[in-house]
Every structure is written in C-alpha cells, then in structure tokens.
Amino acid sequence: MHRWLLIVGLACAFHVHAVSRVDAxxxxxxxxRSVDGREFSNRLDEVATLLKEAEPRQVQxxxxxxxxxxxxxxxxxxxxxERLKRLMxxxxxxxxxxxxxxxxxxxxGLDRRFTDGFRQLHEILPLRNRVSDKAIKHxxxxxxxxxxxxxxxxxxxxxxxxxxLADNPLPRGECVGAIALLDAEYHLAKLPESDAxxxxxxxxxxxxxxxxxxxxxxxxxxxxxVKEGRLDEAKGFIEQHIPExxxxxxxxxxxxxxxxxxxxxxxxxxxxxxxxHAQKVLEHAAEVPSSSALVKAWRVFYExxxxxxxxxxxLNAFRRYADADKAHLADLRARELAYEMVRLEAQGRAQQIxxxxxxxxxxxxxxxxxxxxxxxxxxxxxxxxxxxxxxTYWAIQVKRRQGLLRRMAETDALTGVFNRHHFTRxxxxxxxxxxxxxxxxxxxxxxxxxxxxxxxxxxxxxGDWVLRAVADTCxxxxxxxxxxxxxxxxxxAILLHGLDLSAAARLAEDCRVRIARIDTRETGHVFxxxxxxxxxxTVQSGHDLSRLLSHADLMLYRAKHDGRNCVRVYxxxxxxxxxxxxxxxxxxxxx
Length: 591
Description:
This protein is mainly α. The protein is 72% helix and 6% strand. It contains 24 helices and 6 strands. It has helices spanning 2-32, 37-48, 56-72, 77-89, 94-110, 114-124, 134-150, 154-165, 171-187, 196-207, 211-227, 231-248, 251-267, 271-283, 292-307, 311-370, 374-410, 420-437, 451-458, 460-475, 501-516, 538-541, 545-561, 578-584, and strands spanning 441-448, 483-488, 491-497, 531-537, 567-569, 589-590. It has a 6-stranded mixed sheet with strand order 2-3-1-4-5-6, sandwiched between helices. α7 (134-150) packs antiparallel against α8, α10 (196-207) packs antiparallel against α11 (211-227) and α19 (451-458) packs across α20. The protein is globular and about 85 Å long. The termini are far apart. The model is unreliable at 8-14 and 572-591 (pLDDT under 50).
C-alpha cells in the first residue's frame, strides 16, 4: 500500500514539475519570438517533447506559437492559417482567441487573402476591451494597425497605432506600436523633421532586445533619408545592418532592405553592388511575390544591363520588371477592392439590421392599429412608405457602389484612362471585329522620356500631375471608337480602329508635339515633357494584340535608342533575332 502511494506521489510531483517547466519554456518562447528566431524555435521544439504531460491551455499556447513560427520564420502561410483556424475552433481562452485572431489577420494579408483579412479584423476589434492581459491587447492593436498599413489604409493604421501608444503600453508594446505609427506617418508625410525621435524609438527597442522591431524602424529612417536626398547616409546605414537582418531571418524585411540597397548602389554608380543586392532579392522571389522589392530588383537589373550595353539582357529585365510592376499594381488594386467590399458588406449588414428593426416596429404598430380606428391605420401607411423609401435608398446606394467598383476595376485611378487589364480586353475585342470585317487597325505605344528624373527632381506629386496632363492631352486626339490605356508606370497605348500605318504615325506625331507643348508652370516648376513612340499596324503585324504590342514595343525601344522624343514606325516583318530586329526593322521617322 505504501509502495503504491509512493508511486502516485512521485507521478504527481513529476506532473507538477512538467507543467511548471512547460510554462517557463512557453514564457521564454514568447519573449524570443521577435528577437531570435533560432532560439525561439528551439524552445518550441523542447516544449513539443513535453506536450503529453502538458495541460490543455499549454497545448493551445504552444499551437499558437507554432503557427507564429510557420508564418514568420518558415514562410508556410497556408499551414499557419490552417493551424490558427483549428486553434480558434477549439475554443481557447478569450486572450488566446484574440491573439490567434490578430495573427490570422496578418497571415491573410501575407497570403493576399485581403477580404478574409478584413473580415477577421472586424471580428476581433470589438474583443479588444474584453482582453484581460494588457500586453495581449496591445499585440492585437498592433496587428490591426499593421494590417491597415499593409492595405494602404494609413489613416486607420495611424488611428490604431495611436490608440495602442496612448494606453500606457509595456516596453514591447510601445516598441511595436512605434513601428505602425512611424510607418503610417511616413506614408502620410507626417514623420518628424528631426531624426532624433526615430532614433530614440530604435534605442528603446534595442534596450529590450527587440531586434526585429528595431530593424523595421531603421528601414523607415533610411527611407526618410532617401526622401531628404541623404542618399550616401541611407546607403551606408542599410548596408551596415543587412548582416544583422540576415541573422534575424525574416526574409520579407530583408528583401525590402536588399531592394533599397540595390537602388542606392545603382544611384551611386556601384553597378556590381547593385546587381548583387538585386540578385539576393530574386533568390527569394517566391517569398516576396507581387512586392515592391521585386519590382525594384528587376528595375535595377534593367538599368545595370543598359549600363553594360547588354541589350538582350536589358530587354529581358525590362519585361520582367514590367510583369513585376503589373503584379504589384494588381495587388494594390486588390487590396483597395477588398477594403471597399468588406466596408460595403458591413454597411449592408448595418442597414439590413436597421431595416429589420424598422419592420419589427412596424409589425408592433400594425397590431395596435388593428385595435384602433382609421387614424392609426393611416399612420401605419405612412410608416410603411418610410420603410420602403429607406430600403429603396439602400438599394440605390448599393447600385452606385457597384458602379464605382466596376469603374475602379476598369480604369487607372490616377489618369482616368483604361488600366492595362481592361485595355487588353477591349483591344482584343476591337481587333477581332476588325479582322472579321476586313478592316485595318493600328497600335501606338509611347513612354515618357526621363520620367524618373522628373519624379526625383520635382517629387511624385509633380510626376502624377505630368501623367494626368499627358493622358488628358492624348485623350483629346482619340475618337470614340479608339481605346486608350495606361500599361503601367509612364507607359501608354492607343488602339486605333480603321486607321492604316501612315495615319497612325501622323496621330502619334500629333501626340508627341502636343506633349512637348505642355505648360508645366502650374506645378511651380518649369521643365520639358517629351515622349518616345512606337507604331505598328495590322497590315504588317496581323490582328493579334500581343504581336502588335511586341512590334510597337520594338519601335518604342528603337525610338529610345535613337535619342527619344521621336516616332518610329514598324514596317515589314522583322528578322527573328531580337538584335537583328532592332538593327534592321524598317521604320519611318517623324521628329
């Protein structure tokens, strides 16, 4: 008997020790999760060996941290999302449910499931004041602010970052809250003029060993310096901290740093260093799809190839750059549409609830009206009319929103002309009709000359003004049957229904001349705007849009090569070799 009691006592003591050990390891892993990825993973693996002795709450805590590891350090987005969804189905504590929901928001954002992310955000936001642990509440607020920033809704990101920082957070909460605050302020042009407050935030994060958070803020400081023209400082600063970012192991952060270092090295004329940094970004392209880092890396390869006079590599890099830019722009548009869609859903639900409440009130009134005279019957009719008017008003608003979303999906938000996707669809339909009717068509592609120097010299606001002015100028020359679109960046295209090659060349020349005459004094600066044009026709290229675009793009490249601000027209079928096509393709020149 005593023997059995001894065995039971030892088993209980072992269980208590195991539970205490698991708690200590989980606390340590929580502390290390944004500090040291390797040690964080080691703690989780050690807990995994003790899970059989752990309590259910500890198992759920471990599952949350394991999902965090999959998301941040293993780039297993889908696996992380499934782990978090299963965890939330197991009904964890309110605090852990809030943490898991906040992490799920970020996972959806990184997986480009923006609509799911916004829906999850609306689910956890009302829970923040029910969370007992202040640090957990602040982690959730940071996730909300970070997600809004990622979606381009910087004013909302700023709002929740300020809410976090105003709630007397712990040092770690203040550190991560500063990331969201400074990121929103950077994009809203509200960063402090002095570097001192930003450097103080970096020091605060380093003081509590939050190295990843400190690195995020360093990147924002470097971006600030770039905007201020302090390129050498930014270049040295970023290159100095790249090894530390590699040690942290969060590749999405490192990709941004590598892309920035590549651009700064390119601007400084360090072409080999620029190429090396860009190559590092491309080695992890699958981990940063449709990102601005990928766009920057391909642009650097294009510029380096031009410098090395490797035209074949330059053309390939430019095409990859255009594809990456298109994917990034599509990603940004998807974020905007997701935000609008979820906002409309929330509006619709609120209006439906309001309508149901009104219907309920109406039913109660009708019950009383049945017991009263005709006077109250007339009151019921009035209320019914009011209800119908409210429902009709809601339906009209939804219809208008649907029209707005359709226009957003078809037009370029900055210039008002077709975006690349809609232009392609309209152009293919128009070419099919021309082919069926035996009518010619022509395609004009043009690209603004030295547009980057305008952005760099006068700012992106002036650059946007130039894009709108050019689009308005060329739109005036288009007929109702023509299709005018922005292909991306400073590149445009016009499909001309029923025009031959010579007529299209004259129209391109008219566009070139009018663009060159644009008066820029409205921007507060005086500078020249010019464009290079390439023209192709179905007579030489057939009614296939990709072939027309390829031939017009070839002539546009030729116009750039011949000094810019000119028109080049595709003539007979070019040779198959790209270099030979550039050298031998027949063309006519208007200048």
